[in-house]
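Weekly sync notes, structure subgroup
Attendees: PM, AL, DS (notes)

Item 1: joint prediction request from the bench team. They want all two components modeled as one assembly rather than separately. Inputs as received:
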Amino acid sequence: MPVLKVAFKDRCNGCELCVMEVQRQVGNVGLDGALLRVLREKNEFSIDMDPQINRLDIAKIESICPRAVFTVEKEDSPHEFIE
Amino acid sequence: MQYLAKKFLYIDLAKKEAEVKSFPDLYIYLGGVGVGLKLYEMNEKQDPLVFSVGPLNGFFPFVSKTAVVLSSDNDGSPAYQEQLGAPSFEPSTSVVDKETQSKVEDVYFGGTLSYRIRFAGVDGIVFFGKASEPLCINIVDDKVEFMPSYAAITNLGLPGKRSVLKFEKDRLVLDDFFLSYDNLVGKKFTEKNLDCVAITGTRIFPIENPAKYEALYKDILYMGCGDTLYQFLNGGKNLPQKNLEVTPGRTSSCSGCPLGCEEAKIGELGGNVLTHCLVACDFAKDLYSDASIVFSCLNVLGYDYKHEDIEKVPALVEGLLRRI
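Output from the run, pasted for the record:
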């Protein structure tokens, strides 16, 4: 299952295009309830992601970032072990 | 959606009172510097400090600024510039008040502020009067809390949804990074006994036609960044490229702009009137001084503007400037 990862947090410039992309995919504009948040501490940024974000089109979220902060990686489902 | 009536949060610093006022007639000024100057004119005797955004802030790329209209004793002299130690720009819309001889300035903040004001559900904030003691103000949507000190500023608002204006070494700083031209807004904060302001926006705006909105959003993003940044995303579409007047940098970006350019930190003073009514970045004026692009953006959001309304805006603002 492909999942969105914050691979290069240090590259983030705080433009919030990713937040807007996430919100657009659920038909909204705004910040409240977003499955992704960009947090600022002085001039450093961190990104909070809700795992539910992987239900969205994560390739679009990855590609809208101008600094290539995100990667889409394949992650094995825990159920594959059981099977 | 009906967005035409302009809503402003009026904050009386002397009385520590706040209310939201609606102005159905101000839509003709579009927003930003146009509405800001009109509100300044309407409230001139109370020395207003007006923060104003436009109808596209929060909705489209590169529409990332907040217009601030205020009176200033900045005479533009070399001595004044030296005292401030800040770079000098040529103002285009500042005018001298005939009665007080003070100057009315329009300056522009970058950062996250315009998105926070938009998502607070208002078109701007107007501060009146002077506080009797140093004040910190916490704004969450249209709720305003007056606090005596800014010691706990880091606890105000909601992380990821707030902008903070506070002093660092006598200069007013937005989001720990962005400045206003010549610290003019900082000087006005000091005059009004304002220590800090935190603004949090939690409103959500539904989009009537998401597919059309997304297509226009991305067209504008690609038009602005062109081959340099989003070539791989463009999928071979032949878009008329309108490059921005800045190159991608390594600094903090304003919300809705991917570039992180060096100029964003200092802010702007003066420039294209239509761009500053919207309030887009002046370095994106090639995009947002194009009335057909502006009309498309307003139209997809459901605003009831016509081409003629947009074309009239510069003349209306010029008329305002003459009156002030």
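Discussion: Chain B touches chain A at residues 58-59, 61, 112, 115, 119, 159-161, 175-177, 201-207, 210, 213-214, 217, 221, 225, 229-230, 232-233, 248, 250-260 (CB under 8 Å).
Action: AL to compare against the crosslinking data before next sync.
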